[in-house]
Amino acid sequence: QVQLVESGGGLVQAGGSLRLSCAASGRTFNSYGMGWFRQAPGKERIFVAHITRSGENTVYTDSVKGRFTISRDNAKNTVYLQMNSLKPEDTAVYYCAARARGDLTYNYWGQGTQVTVSS
């Protein structure tokens, strides 16, 4: 069982930056690949980024490539999403999620943190 708690959301002007954090409970954090998703008002939740268990490999959705960076600190049981050059269309609730080794789906989800980008 993994519990995830996001933080770091807020209101920022277009072009600004935010860093989201997701703290995980438990002693097996490095057993999970970690992802960030977002859900804009009236839209479905979509994938943003993923980082492997070791942190060696990352994947991003096209719309955030070059602007967002996912990273993790396994010693602190935390995954981060550094968001730069924010745009109004990045406004959404951001969720972190954990995927166990061998699983195709994310098994654990945080409660989400709101990111609002004003124009």
**SSE string, helix = H, strand = E?**
EEEEEEEEEEE
Radius of gyration over all CA atoms, rounded = 13 Å
Shape: globular
From the N-terminal CA to the C-terminal CA, the straight-line distance is: 40 Å
Averaged pLDDT: 96
How many helical elements? 0
Largest sheet: 7 strands, mixed
Number of strands: 11
Could you list the spans in which at least 5 consecutive residues all have pLDDT below 50? none
Bin the helical content. Answer: under 10%
Coarse structural class: mainly beta
Strand content: over 45%
Structure description:
The structure is a single chain. The protein has 119 residues and is an all-beta fold. 0% of the residues lie in helices and 52% in strands. It is built from no helices and 11 strands. It has strands at residues 4-7, 10-13, 18-24, 32-39, 45-51, 58-60, 68-73, 78-83, 92-100, 108-109, 113-118. Strands 2, 4, 5, 6, 9, 10 and 11 form a 7-stranded mixed beta sheet that branches.
Structural descriptors:
52% strand, mainly beta, 119 residues, 4-stranded antiparallel sheet, 7-stranded mixed sheet
Q: Gist?
A:
With 119 residues, this protein is mainly β. Helix content is 0%, strand content 52%. Strand 4 (32-39) and strand 5 form a beta hairpin.
